[in-house]
Amino acid sequence: MNVFKVEKGIRKVGLNYGVSCILIDCGIGVNYSNEELLKKLVGMGLRKGSLVVIRDGMGQRGIGAFVSALKYLNMRVEVEAGGGAIVPGWFPEVTFWLVRWIPKGLFNYSALRPRQDLLVYGGDSIEEFIENTKSVIAERGIIGGEVPLDLLYTNNIRYYKGVVEG
User: Fold this and answer.
1) How far apart, in whole angstroms, are the C-alpha atoms of residue 57 and residue 45?
2) Among 141, 111, 108, 113, which Cα is nearest to 126's?
């Protein structure tokens, strides 16, 4: 897996808002084997029940096996994905999904689970997001921008003000 950065942090968006976690940002960087990455996480204090957040790793080779290894070790795993990704075969292995909505995305938004997964949007077409995701049973959220309180309230949508996606 190519990993850009691994760090301890506090979750600033999603259903795990405020929870301490280990953040793994995938991308151009160090190429780790699953074993090497697990050793690094253990060295950072990974323990049973820890939350591990994997961001932008959907295209990484070996990500499914890595998620399975974390689940086997009794970790809670959250994966952030863009709506342009296809739902992977290892979808059920992930404890929590945070998916960024895009119109006509390839991700099957209907696969997202209630009270467990979150579909978020950070653009200017909030009304379009609300209208096109009414049938999604997962939690929905808006990231940043100014949103009328009534719009959030009547559509049961979470709001994360001041959060920068990425």
Assistant:
1) 22
2) 141
For 2-160, CATH number? 3.20.20.70
pTM for the model stands at 0.93
Alpha-carbon distance of 49 to 43, in angstroms, equals: 16
Query: What are the pLDDT digits (tens) for 63-122?
Result: 999 999 999 999 999 999 999 999 999 999 999 999 999 999 999 999 999 999 999 999
Q: What are phi and psi of 74, to 5 degrees?
A: 65, 40
157 close to 142: Cβ distance less than 8 angstroms: yes
Tokens of 131: 């209208």
Single-letter code of the amino acid located at 25: D
What is the rounded end-to-end Cα distance, in angstroms, of the chain? 18
